[in-house]
Amino acid sequence: MGSSRQTARLAVVFGLVAAGLSGCGARHTELECMERAMYFESNRSSRDGMVAVGSVVMNRVESGKYPRSVCGVVGQRGQFASGVMSKRMDLRSSPKIRDAARSVLRGERHPMIGNAQFFHTAGYSFPYNNMHYVLVTGGNAFYEKRKSEFVTQPVPPPSVEGMTGY
């Protein structure tokens, strides 16, 4: 009896370790992770902003340079809002977020996002010469990192809204 309890405890411990290493954990589905990224990064400002954030997440998943799952990307340390995987969400905005998250997971991308894998709060500026901006929407500026000689849009363009459904 004692050894079966030990075996069960070890199985639980190994399961928790494996879940923690996956970036998603046993607590969140891919849909929930996408919702969390949209909720905490787009400030629920617009559908365009949520879809653009989701598009960046998917660009990272598909790049081969980041984890191969939505939860792995969103849960990656230092990449998204602090506490993105653990903070409480106000569920009043949940239906719009869930709709946008499902849509992105089914293949929708913001039509102007291109290959962008990065964004920051609109209005901030950085001294780097490798940021090629593709879009400003939902309070964020989205960009691709390029060699400086291939940057043709070194400053964020004007904000655009109304490009995605609703």
UniProtKB/TrEMBL annotation:
<dbReference type="InterPro" id="IPR042047">
    <property type="entry name" value="SleB_dom1"/>
</dbReference>
<dbReference type="Pfam" id="PF07486">
    <property type="entry name" value="Hydrolase_2"/>
</dbReference>
<dbReference type="GO" id="GO:0016787">
    <property type="term" value="F:hydrolase activity"/>
</dbReference>
<protein>
    <submittedName>
        <fullName>Cell wall hydrolase, SleB</fullName>
    </submittedName>
</protein>
<keyword id="KW-0378">Hydrolase</keyword>
<dbReference type="InterPro" id="IPR011105">
    <property type="entry name" value="Cell_wall_hydrolase_SleB"/>
</dbReference>
<feature type="domain" description="Cell wall hydrolase SleB">
    <location>
        <begin position="46"/>
        <end position="143"/>
    </location>
</feature>
